[in-house]
Design goal:
The protein has four helices and no strands. The protein is mainly α and 143 residues long.
Length: 143
């Protein structure tokens, strides 16, 4: 098995944990009437995204360092957009169903805000790591 195929296997294996957590949250929306339990599962889903992101960064940095290619970084950006989009949807849906108190009174602002808040932090950190690896691949720091 080639290195890229092995890294792809690890990378997509890391996607399974957030997918599993998202499936659990979706099941809870249809069966549970306790907002505390749903909120706890949404936070667990958020944690699964961040833990998968850490693993994806390890794979992305390793591949960029060895191959000088941004392939895994690009996939990570798509992962972040989709998973944090789902996180925002879950947050907003829980707010709409249970009517939790929030500063936002409409039916979409809380979800959009939480999505953008988490997405901005993750993208900035990812860009920082991507730039750092690019800069350290050159010899400017060894002079």
């Amino acid at each position: 098995m080639k290195k890229k195929q092995f890294l792809l296997l690890i990378f997509f294996g890391l996607l399974l944990y957030p997918l599993y957590q998202a499936y659990g949250v979706l099941n809870l929306f249809s069966s549970v009437e306790n907002p505390g339990e749903i909120r706890a599962n949404i936070v667990t889903y958020q944690l699964s995204i961040w833990l998968s992101w850490v693993g994806m960064m390890v794979v992305s940095v390793y591949y960029k360092w060895r191959q000088r290619d941004n392939f895994f970084f690009k996939i990570t950006y798509f992962f972040l957009v989709f998973t944090f989009g789902a996180f925002g949807y879950f947050t907003q849906h829980a707010h709409n169903v249970f009517g939790n108190s929030s500063r936002f009174s409409d039916s979409y602002t809380l979800g959009a805000f939480t999505t953008l808040q988490n997405l901005l932090v993750a993208v900035v950190l990812t860009i920082f790591l991507q730039i750092a690896v690019s800069l350290f691949q050159t010899k400017w720091h060894r002079r």
